[in-house]
Amino acid sequence: MSFRAFLLAALAGLAPGFAAAAPVEIFYDDFAAEVAGAPGTVQTINFSPLANWDIVDGTVDLFTSGGFGLPCGSTGCLDLDGSTGNAARLELKYETIFMAGITYTLTLGLSGKNGGGLENLTFGTVGYAMTTYTSLAGAGSPVTLTTSFTYGTTTADKLFLDHDGGDNFGLLLDFVRLEHDAPAVPLPAGLPLLLAGLGALAMLRRR
């Protein structure tokens, strides 16, 4: 290979490529604020208020792992069908600005459920996106739920969760996470080739 051809090949290594970036977390709640400072096992029926959520209907029970004899996989958990026979609807206290064209992913962690019946949970954003999960009958094992959505125009909206049970035994909410896809980051696609080429050029110049 001629010196000129090799130089062109090395410079071609500078052509930009795109490396996928990790999702960006913009909200996370594991109900640590609700159990902060509480000694030992927490178990509180019809708990309020929540730090990040408005309980716009129904009630929730707050507990840590072992409270009420229930599992909890994070700092704190909510039984979404509290002890009044009226399952809860939660809405985030503040609006989130959802940018047009960006894909957002809402993830819920459930530690299982309290009781063995069928349970329904609808979640998403108040004005746009929603997904309904129906649990299986019998003992509930931990499950992770996700829904992804993209707004056509930049919009201010709130997250929500709506449980429709009414028997005091509900799904056990472990955590809520909201992320968005970060734009791809342009990088030198052929950086290894470029470094090798520069090394070879140095050897050719010596010759």
TrEMBL record:
Signal peptide: 1-21
Xref: InterPro entries: VPLPA-CTERM
Keywords linked to the UniProt accession: Membrane, Signal, Transmembrane, Transmembrane helix
Transmembrane parts of this sequence: 185-204
NCBIfam families the record matches: VPLPA-CTERM (TIGR03370)
Protein name (record): VPLPA-CTERM protein sorting domain-containing protein
Native species: Primorskyibacter flagellatus
Lineage of the organism: Bacteria, Pseudomonadati, Pseudomonadota, Alphaproteobacteria, Rhodobacterales
